[in-house]
Amino acid sequence: MTRVVSDGIGRDVLVTPSPVAMVWQGEGRPHEALAVPGVSLAPGELLVEVELATVCGSDVHTVLGHRHAPTPLVLGHEQVGRVTAVGEGAVASDGTPLIVGMRVVWSVTVSCGSCDRCSRGLAEKCRALAKYGHDRVHRGWELSGGFATHVQVRAGSTVVLVDEALPAAVAAPASCATATVAAALEAAADRVRLAGATVVVLGAGLLGITATAMATDAGARVVVSDPDPLRRSAALSFGAAAVADSRSGFRSATGLGGVLATLTASGAAEPLIVLEMSGSTAAVSTAMNLVGVGGVIVLVGSVSPSDGIRLDPETLVRGLITVRGVHNYAARHLISAVDYLEHAWYRYPFAQLVGNTFPLALVDDALALAATGTHQRVALDPHLGA
Question: Entry's NCBIfam families (predicted)?
Answer without folding.
Answer: HpnZ_proposed
